[in-house]
Amino acid sequence: LYVRDFELEPAGEPARYRHRFTLVQVKENVELTRGKLVMKLVGRSGKKRRKLDRAEFSPDGEKTVKLEFRHYQDVEGEILLPEGFDPRELRIEFLPRNKELKKLETVFPWPQAQSK
Length: 116
Known about the structure:
Order of helices and strands: EEEEHEEEEH
Distance between the termini: 33 Å
Helix content: under 10%
Shape: elongated
Strand content: over 45%
Largest sheet: 5 strands, antiparallel
Radius of gyration: 15 Å
């Protein structure tokens, strides 16, 4: 499992961003990939380091997203930053239910020019 074509861009309002990426599964013996997508934002609120769950920054308020796909899954959504939160990185995890697949964990640095 890996993440391909990750994009993060401003979405018109100061604290709103749009993300897009593709989850790719390359093992031939896996017919259908099932699991949960978990996203976390790591950053600072004032002087404190904070880690936000997806439910705290996603407009839909869901902590995880259940996915089911064959070879790849396009994922897109919005991030609404809480007031006073300075993001540093976005962590993406995929927790597969398939025994043949290992957990995916990847970290993307937050583009600092966009967050100022």
